[in-house]
Amino acid sequence: MTLYARRRAANGIVMSLSLGATVVGLGWLVLVLGALLWNGFGSLSLAVFTEMTPPPGAQGGLLNPIIGSLMMSAVAVAIGTPIGILAGTYMAEYGRYSYLTSVVRFINDILLSAPSIVIGLFIYEVVVRPLGHFSGIAGSLALAVLVIPVVVRTTEDMLLTVPRELREAATALGLPRSHVIANVSYRAARAGIITGILLAIARISGETAPLLFTALNNQFFSTDMTAPLSSLPVVIFQFAMSPYPDWQKLAWAGALIITFAVLALSISARALAATRNTQ
Amino acid sequence: MSQRRLPVVDIAMGDAPAATSAPPDRSGVLVRLRLTNATFRGLTFGASITVLIILSGVIIALVEGSLPALRHFGFGFLVSERWNPVTENFGALAPIYGTLVTSIIAMVIAVPFGLLIAVFLTELCPPWLRRPIGIAIELLAGIPSIIYGIWGLFIFAPFLQRTLQPALIDLFGPIPVLSNLFAGPPYGIGILTAGLILAIMVLPFITSISRDVFDAVPPVLKEAAYGLGCTTWEVVRHVVIPFARVGVTGGVMLGLGRALGETMAVTFVIGNAHRISASVLAPGTTISASIANEFTEALGDLYTSSLVLLGLILFVITFIVLAIARYLLMRIERRIG
Question: Model pTM?
């Protein structure tokens, strides 16, 4: 074989491998989603949204875990978002060039990908153990710790893209820094910051590990945040690992609901980011 | 949004010639503005310190919680394979082994796949297809791990039990060393299944970072190589990969960090057996799966504390891996930016 033919052949082999890898990779992911849709829709019914989790062998739904998940996510976002936005503001505005900012950015990036089960252990040690019982609040705090790094990261990134001239113009009018940030920077970066919050909600809505030993679970209907609270991911875990077909069907239905919620959140986050880019 | 109009109007009125009350009012406004600014600055400063407090809180809480186990077992905890809740005798070797082996299986599969897909997306893919595939990959990176777990348990593990695992046993049975690696009955669940699920999970991360890094290679460099008559593969091999090496390594480390700490997808399919088997078909356990499975059922301080100590070990391992990843990615960002 001539050198030229050999080079052509090598190129052909690697390029077909890369095409093959893409087909296999995407096909595999299609398989996961396909199985989820097939089994999920097969188990979905109105009762899933209106009835309590059943004992083994009985009919029921997922109302209490859905409510519990919504409550805990709402509290987590209410705690985590302000802290995240304020921290991101410091990093992009007041302390843009300070040493502290680079340290916080590094630590925040580590927290962003730290194993969530470790966050669960942390909240167990500082909240559950001193109080002596599992609670919805502990679950919310664990989720809030996961919300903060996502919001910090996006807020900082988005504020950094606000043109410096806008801030300079406002500062030249005599406005103090806090008013420049509130009236100019936040306004210019609003879509981006909301995108970050949506992504954070998407991140926590499927989190199971940090809830296992903070919020625990509750087979009865409860909206009491100081008591153990049921959540969708934990119920899916419990039901899927059980030997009862009824429970397993409900687990599939719950998995479908979570996936839809996460996909809807990430797609709207993307759409929001896209409208901002075209402006 | 009421604060929007107040200060501006106040200052303007102070400047207006018609205004009679001049200096005292104006200095009052300035004091107020300064105070608002100082308060806001303090708030944002406090919030960014909170991030540091959370991380140190995690470390302190884990160390404090694992002290009883540390005192009782010492460093023998790291090298002991025992895990007996009845006699309260615990060792971390089996979970550490399981964590490392599943992550290695995942990376061995996901890294070549991720790189090849990134090559496809940056070099081969028609432009109109690039965005949809890129978006699909990023959406898939956001799917919660419990979804992969339930899929692995009900669909993937039975499938492997019927097809891949018997084939592997038959194939490697006659070969001396490899027969131990693929020995035992095909359970479906086990180390290999967990590794494969992890590979599917980290694939989107590695692909999307590699694609970003490949995209950042200056076109001029690639065009120069093409101009010399290089094939696409030669351009990738000799121009793109050397330029992107640091960033790709960072992306791989980031994926490894995810794989090491991943809990739910693994917990579903690993089988939770505290032992070290030579065979990858056997059930095992990982650090995160042990904690997830046993923590709420752990009776007694020593059992709980041993699980917290496992968490601390996991945190230290992932912290090191993620710190290296971030350092490498920071270096490449600086070079691009």
Answer: 0.89
